[in-house]
Amino acid sequence: MSHAPHICIVTTVHDPLDTRVFYREARTLAAAGYRVTLLAQGARDETIDGVRFRPLPPRRFSLPARARGLWIAWRAARREAADAYHLHDPELTLIGLLLKLEGRRVVLDVHEHTPFHILEKPYIPRPLRRPLAAIYDGWERLAARLADRVITVGEVIAARFGGRAVIVRNLPDLERFEACPANPATPGPDGSLTAIYTGVVERQRGLLGAARAVASLPPELNLRLRIVGPCPFPAFAAELIAAGQGRVRVEPPVPYPAIPALLAEAHIGLEVALPTRLNALLWPRKVFEYMAAGLPVIRADYPAWDAFAAEGCLAVDPADEGAIRAALLTLARDPDLRARLGSQGRVLVQNRFRWDNEARTLVELYAGLIGAPKGNVEF
């Protein structure tokens, strides 16, 4: 049995093979020499890339079922007797507190600005949103003070925790993308061009305006929009297809390892999320992936995004369908511009925004918390 320090990662919300939870963090820690166990709903009892999976029951949405799920997750985590617990979901802050009361080391991984999410949830009555957001904000700040470490994905979330947070961004693993680079200057075998969006398919992502913009382009450009990702509301997918007038496809999500090959078939990356408290502030993972693949990007014109996407992109007002159409038209008509912007974005990611830099931060955090494993990998 390995005597390497043991890290137990827990999620009750995310898929076992979630991009951040498994492909970035769990695999990185296992490759560094740590013994890593991942407790996740829907997982199978198996080991993948050095990460040992243990199943939790599927997530339920009634309050009694969720409380029972948390109880089961807490008991499963305690049985691991790990050197540190890495907790990924807002509801797991309670488990973190219980583990701290037992003297365990706890790391909170705060992916989202949950108070902002609460303020924008349409199913929460408007008068209750601010009080609930304030209550949760206070609870999460308390949990962060009690935890041993806090990890976030960017400065906006980190600022909530008064300098206690360490930023580990969701950046691309370049080895995956270098194996199958895109060729944005060259049309597909049938002479078509493809603009692509990957991610959750929902109205606030600006996809309806993008679909209408694509439908309004001159037919001779032969440009299509490919939308790939989970769609919580099938009626919205049908609305997008109708708006695209035969030029829009909506497809189910693909596993993270398949993303580079998917992007290699495209010519333009699209991220035109409509303005919300979150969209205007948080750096979208997909833009980094588009740039890593060598695609030119049409992205929303938010000042917070300029820090990483000033190069390789055309910035547009995401609420202006005409602006999206103009950017698509510009790129569709100019293969040299597509190639130049794609190259600029790739160089930017290679030089600054790559996962191995974040991996080093993550491994150093755990080395300081529970010690480095013998023979650990240098990043």
Summarize the structure.
With 379 residues, this protein is an alpha/beta fold. The chain has two domains: 6-171 and 354-370, Glycogen Phosphorylase B (Rossmann fold, 3-Layer(aba) Sandwich); 174-351, Glycogen Phosphorylase B (Rossmann fold, 3-Layer(aba) Sandwich).
3D structure, described in words:
The protein has 379 residues and is α/β, with parallel strands linked by helices. It folds into two domains: 6-171 and 354-370, Glycogen Phosphorylase B (Rossmann fold), CATH 3.40.50; 174-351, Glycogen Phosphorylase B (Rossmann fold), CATH 3.40.50.2000. It is 42% helix and 17% strand. It is built from 15 helices and 14 strands. It has helices spanning 19-31, 63-80, 93-101, 114-119, 126-146, 155-158, 174-178, 207-215, 234-244, 259-264, 285-293, 306-309, 321-333, 335-351, 355-370, and strands at 6-11, 35-41, 47-48, 51-56, 84-87, 106-110, 149-152, 165-167, 193-198, 223-228, 248-251, 268-271, 297-300, 313-316. The strands form two sheets. Strands 3-4-2-1-5-6-7-8 form an eight-stranded mixed sheet, sandwiched between helices. Strands 11-10-9-12-13-14 form a six-stranded parallel sheet, with helices on both faces. The longest helix is centred in the middle third of the chain and has 21 residues, at 126-146. The chain is globular and about 65 Å long. The protein starts with 5 loop residues before the first strand and ends in a 9-residue tail after the last helix. The mean pLDDT is 92.
